[in-house]
Amino acid sequence: MVVDAQTLINLGLGIILAGIGWWGRVVWDSLQKLKDDVHEIEIDLPKSYVSKDEFHDTMSRIEGMVQKIFDKLDGKMDK
């Protein structure tokens, strides 16, 4: 069986292009999965954030508690 140079070149290029095609398909599938994950995060993310009003209310309560602690400490220092 005699194989000429053109057949070897065609076979080599075919194998190389098949490898590049496979790699491109893997990258494309990964990119699509990443897009789906980002889209899912975009949908779920606003549900996990604390709203400004809720944050403000919580901080006001904490500031009130801290102020009570400071007042008690000031009362202890005066004694």
Question: How would you explain this protein's 3D organization?
Answer:
- By secondary structure, the chain is mainly alpha-helical.
- It folds into 2 domains: 1-48; 49-79.
- It is built from 2 helices and no strands.
- It has helices at 5-48, 52-78.
- It is rod-shaped.
- The N and C termini lie far apart (109 Å).
- 0% of the residues are buried.
Number of strands: 0
Shape: rod-shaped
Structural class: mainly alpha
Outline the low-pLDDT stretches: none
Estimate the strand proportion: under 5%
Summarize model confidence as the mean pLDDT.
Answer: 92
Comma- or semicolon-separated keywords:
rod-shaped, 79 residues, mainly alpha, 2 helices, single chain
